[in-house]
Design brief:
heterodimer; A: mainly alpha; 68% helix; B: 516 residues; five-stranded mixed β-sheet; four-stranded mixed β-sheet
Chain lengths: 288, 516
């Protein structure tokens, strides 16, 4: 017998809920839309009025300026390279590491687990990290942006938990039939783990797209600077007191266009992975 | 199978050996001759980007490499991350051959032995370096009498007092010269509708950039109002053999009292302490304020051209007013400091002679014109042996911000300003001239750092701006001034000043004492 739902109460709750959500959404989207509008407006318009909801004049001058800025092309290439290659490498290494930790009779399993958790909490610091990367001859190489942070241990443990939620009988029966561990991982575990893989891919991709501090630290050559570093140096000129005598600072519109160019591409990936992402949040939780 | 492999292997090896032997042959005779002088020396340079970018195959850098027989590896770092990066490089022992560091920050690294002593090299190979840099700059950057830093210098006068000329005209006022005239102008700017738009929406005085909570720039923001009182916050002056730290003098109290009075009467923008840089400039463009103290380029290039103020308000015109004179005739703008930064050479550099020769070339006339203006004929044209104007290619390179990268490493201010800027921008040149030649307040202790200043200075600066804000906004009455002075002295101020005086006396062989 279905319980009677008191429709009146649900209605008000729904209304308030939706209203609050709309306000929160507006608060989150508005700054972005504001920047978008500024980036396509001519400078004089921006200077005249404080808040522009609907642009009166449209001008793509700011975008033209930014795209001509020496180095935007190569910065884009570098960022796309480290995002694609880096995500791939990170996924492979995280999956390998997570799978190994699920094997129950792995010798030294607890030791490995402890070591992994220790690295989650403790960090050597800036200068030791630099020295390690230097001694591995990765300074000023793209690999310095990919390898040192290839595995996020927290997510590796989450992935391990997800793997463990897959019925053990599947891998056990495969082992009995003489299947190698690699094949088990590749043919059985991974196909069933698409939600967690998509979640991790998104996480790693965004994190690699935003590479900034590591680049400042390890990269000296202009050719290997990723996008975010370029954006930052452009932005620095206008806001802080970089009083240059021979160069005027970039206008607000140019800075807005720069931010758009750096953010829009990665933003576009979200809708595609959205369905996996929502699923992925619950990953590792107890399955009913 | 093995025999086959062995055969292949031996054939390949033979071919490789023969090829490498013969490839050396052809060049050998000429190579032996060139070997001694031909190998370009490799140098790595690091500096903050100063708004520039590095272009691949930069023709100017290639030309410099050709002329100096070097191979340069330049890396630019965003200014906000520069000190982090420098720290990491120093600590891990991987400093590039040459670094350009801002201000006097290099002095903290000198005791660690990371920089090379350049004294003898500059004597032998640095004639252009010596010519380009004034004696005072050398004095303030020497360490134990030796040269570890090559100072880069700039004009000391950078600030102007900008006033809306069209507002003065609308109200029939002359440019103010005394404090009373200044007050009168600010009052009329605020209440007499100077922009004739029928609205009461204007202030007399505001700002060009955010007033930092760390106290690093409130002096610049209020400089036009401090000047007539004969004092500048944070600057020490010498009077009758005694040294007086500006921010705790009775003159400073008078200045703060005056500014507080203006603030109370709403002649100063009430939001002056909370407005951000972008908003501040926007307010100026929107004609919300009639005057401000600013970097020389703000009232001219930045607001007018860059932010299109002349399109937003075609009648607007900014004029520069000479610093206002106080009751006993004192006046002036704060000096921005002679030393902009330093060039330091790593103590691990393998070719110290070549390094100094290289820097010497950059500061020579030929080298400096190359780094500041580009390649003659390609990026700029000459007339009667003088810089005439940039070519379209030179303009493009300048707009793309890569033309004068190396000029930010080793600047020659005379070339950058009188040689190039004056010719390119005759309308803006007068603004620089006024700022450069204006009477200036200099800090006696400019360039001196002591361990006490490294401990206390940052907090004391914050304390100064905190109290200043409270006095001006009326949160604390000016009668509490002595409490503020006592607090300042107790929190390390007295120790800092004493340490400065001791260091100053040591360097100059004088015997001054503290006046306050």
């Amino acid at each position: 017998m279905v319980a009677k739902v008191d429709r009146g109460k649900i209605h008000i709750f729904d209304v308030i809920n939706v209203l609050i959500m709309i306000i929160v959404c507006i608060l989150m989207i508005y700054p972005f839309i504001y920047l978008l509008i500024i980036s396509i407006s001519p400078i004089s318009e921006v200077m005249k009025s404080n808040i522009i909801l609907i642009p009166k004049k449209i001008s793509f001058d700011s975008y033209k300026y930014v795209l001509r800025y020496a180095g935007v092309g190569s910065a884009y290439k570098v960022t796309i390279f480290i995002t694609v290659v880096g995500t791939l490498i990170s996924l492979i290494m995280t999956a390998l590491g997570a799978y190994v930790l699920t094997i129950k009779d792995l010798p030294g399993r607890n030791l490995f687990l402890t070591l992994v958790i220790i690295t989650m909490i403790f960090n050597g610091g800036l200068i030791p990290s630099y020295m390690v990367v230097k001694q591995l001859h990765m300074i000023n190489q793209v690999w310095a942006l990919i390898i040192p942070n290839a595995i996020n241990t927290f997510w590796m443990i989450v992935m391990r938990n997800f793997f463990q939620s897959i019925p053990v009988s599947l891998s056990e029966s495969a082992r009995i039939d003489g299947c190698s561990e690699y094949k088990i991982l590749l043919k059985i575990i991974l196909p069933l783990s698409l939600p967690i893989i998509a979640t991790l891919a998104l996480f790693y991709a965004v994190s690699l797209w935003n590479t900034y501090f590591n680049a400042i630290l390890y990269i000296n050559s202009k050719k290997l600077q990723p996008l975010q570093v370029l954006i930052r140096s452009m932005y620095d000129q206008g806001s802080q007191g970089v009083q240059s005598d021979t160069l005027p600072p970039p206008a607000e519109t140019i800075r807005a266009a720069t931010i758009m160019i750096a953010t829009l591409p990665i933003l576009c990936i979200y809708p595609f992975l959205q369905k996996y992402f929502a699923q992925g949040i619950m990953v590792g939780a107890v399955k009913g | 199978m093995k025999k086959h492999l062995l055969k292949t292997f031996s054939i390949v090896t033979t071919v490789v050996l023969l090829t490498t032997t013969f490839s050396g042959c052809g060049k050998q005779s000429s190579e032996a001759q060139q070997q001694k002088s031909s190998a370009p020396v490799k140098f790595s340079i690091m500096m903050d980007d100063s708004g520039r970018v590095l272009k691949e195959d930069d023709p100017v850098i290639k030309e410099v490499e050709k002329k100096t027989n070097t191979k340069l590896d330049v890396s630019l770092v965003a200014p906000s991350e520069f000190s982090n990066k420098l720290n990491v490089m120093v600590s891990s022992g991987s400093l590039p051959d040459m670094v350009r560091i801002n201000g006097y920050n290099a002095s903290q690294y000198i005791p660690q032995g990371v920089f090379l002593d350049l004294t003898s090299y500059i004597d032998k190979y640095g004639s252009n370096i010596k010519k380009a840099i004034p004696k005072e700059a050398w004095e303030s950057t020497k360490y134990n009498g030796k040269i570890y830093s090559i100072p880069t210098v700039n004009y000391t006068g950078k600030y102007n007092f900008f006033v809306r000329q069209d507002w003065l005209d609308n109200l029939g006022l002359k440019a103010p010269t005394t404090i009373d005239e200044l007050t009168d102008m600010l009052t009329k700017f605020t209440f007499n509708d100077p922009d004739k738009d029928g609205k009461n929406d204007t202030f007399g005085y505001s700002q060009e950039s955010e007033i930092n909570a760390d106290g690093s720039n409130f002096r610049a923001a209020f400089a036009a109002l401090f000047g007539p009182f004969g004092v500048m916050p944070g600057m020490t002056q010498l009077k009758d053999g005694k040294l007086y730290y500006g921010s705790i003098t009775p003159e400073y109290k008078d200045a703060v009292e005056y500014i507080a009075k203006l603030y109370k009467q709403k002649l100063i923008d009430p939001d002056i302490f909370i407005t951000k840089t972008d908003q501040a400039k926007q307010k100026l463009v929107q004609s919300k304020s009639g005057s401000f103290t600013g970097w020389w380029s703000t009232g001219s290039q930045v607001l007018m051209d860059q932010m299109k103020m002349n399109q937003v308000n075609p009648k607007a015109k900014w004029s520069v007013i000479s610093p206002i004179k106080g009751k006993s005739g004192e006046s002036g703008m704060p000096s921005n400091g002679l030393v902009a930064g330093t060039i330091n050479v790593s103590s691990k550099c393998k070719n110290p002679e070549e390094v100094v020769k290289f820097i010497d070339y950059l500061l020579s006339d030929e080298g400096a014109w190359l780094t500041h203006a580009g390649i003659k004929g390609v990026h700029y044209t000459e007339k009667d042996g003088k810089f005439e104007k940039r070519t379209p290619e030179g303009e493009k390179a300048m707009n793309e911000k890569w033309l004068d990268v190396l000029s930010q490493f080793a600047p020659r201010i005379d070339i950058a300003m009188e040689g190039i800027y004056k010719v390119n921008n005759p309308t803006y040149w007068p603004y620089i001239q006024v700022a450069r030649d204006a009477k200036q307040y200099k800090d006696v202790f400019e360039g001196i750092t002591t361990s006490e200043s490294q401990t206390y200075k940052a907090d004391l600066q914050k304390l100064e701006v905190d109290w200043f804000t409270k006095f001006v906004t009326g949160k604390e009455p000016i009668s509490k001034f002595d409490d503020y002075v006592k607090q300042w002295k107790d929190k390390g101020g007295k120790q800092m000043i004493d340490s400065f005086i001791k260091e100053y006396n040591k360097r100059h062989g004088t015997n001054y004492t503290a006046g306050n």
